[in-house]
Design a protein that fits this description.
By secondary structure, this protein is an alpha/beta fold. The chain folds into three domains: about 55 residues, Beta Barrel (OB fold (Dihydrolipoamide Acetyltransferase, E2P)), CATH 2.40.50.140; about 150 residues, P-loop containing nucleotide triphosphate hydrolases (Rossmann fold); about 80 residues, Ribonucleotide Reductase Protein R1, domain 1 (Orthogonal Bundle). About 25% of the residues lie in helices and about 25% in strands. The chain has eight helices and 13 strands. Helix 2 crosses helix 7. The longest helix is centred in the C-terminal third of the chain and has 15 residues. The protein is globular. The model has no long low-confidence stretch (mean pLDDT about 95). Bound molecules: guanosine-5'-triphosphate, magnesium ion and zinc ion.
Length: about 300
Amino acid sequence: MSGMCSAPEEGVIVKGVGGLYTVRTSRGLQECRARGIFRKNNTPPLVGDRVLTADGVICGILPRKNSLSRPLCANIDRLFIVISLADPEPNTRNIDLLAACAQLRDIEPVLVFNKLDLGDVYGVRRAYGSVPFLQADICVRHPDPGDVQRLIRLIEGRTVALGGASGVGKSSLVNLLRQSDVALTGDISRKLRRGRNTTRHAQLFELCGGRIIDTPGFSSFLPEYFRPEDLQALSGCFPEFAPYEGKCRFADCAHIREPGCAVRQAVDCGAIARGRYEGYVAAHEYISGLKPWKNDETKRKNGI
Ligand SMILES: Nc1nc2c(ncn2[C@@H]2O[C@H](COP(=O)(O)OP(=O)(O)OP(=O)(O)O)[C@@H](O)[C@H]2O)c(=O)[nH]1
Ligand SMILES: [Mg+2]
Ligand SMILES: [Zn+2]
């Protein structure tokens, strides 16, 4: 992989804009271009990639642990799905799809509820109370020291990507944890109560012996963030289904419309939240509708 590199140095990509990459090596930050072969093979380097550089050129990408399409980054241990209790209004469907996508790539999702000062007006925190994911509270505006400590412990020694809608406070959270204004933040549009897509590019920051990747918010979730082969593992991404797996009438039950489905019975009696089940069905529909060629096209575009 390093065939074209003379005396290469190893580093981590902290930022990539318009073909120009910032790589952190033991000698500090370096601006690099990538070898043309990555573009030719449609495998561009991603933020979080461990790379080999020489003379201002990225000449090799070391094997990836994983990569995500949204947010677009590589080598992630945990995804903090940042959710604001209000402003913008939380979108539970996107939360469920994002959490599923992360788990499919061996990334542990953590639900991080921000803007506690606004109150749980949409009931999103309550709705996820019994969902067996790691969860954390934060109010970036008036931070509770205990909440900050807990978040820091969830990051320590890991690479954590921040995902979620525009305006939920991802960059504000980076600034709070780094205790300096390293990431640009923007206010919420008063009329639309939505974020303004302030962060335009993923950026990796060092933090507590770990790394945190700030990413641009996104509002729509595309089927292409999944892969056709994800179908088999999907129900495992809804850990509250686990007690019912294997109890359906058919051994290969997909929990969609098969008779005698134990998961759907659990939904009907309120043991599984209906919204979460609907998130599962939506993900299932997305993945079953994916055509392999279409997904290849997305991989090409995203360089995965
Ligand atoms: N009320 C309240 N506002 C907050 C809190 N945390 C962040 N904000 C505000 O939310 C707005 C958006 O914050 P950003 O950090 O720019 O949001 P973002 O998720 O990075 O948004 P994008 O970069 O567009 O994806 C800013 O005006 C912040 O001051 C909080 O705990 N409470
Ligand atoms: Mg931001
Ligand atoms: Zn079933």
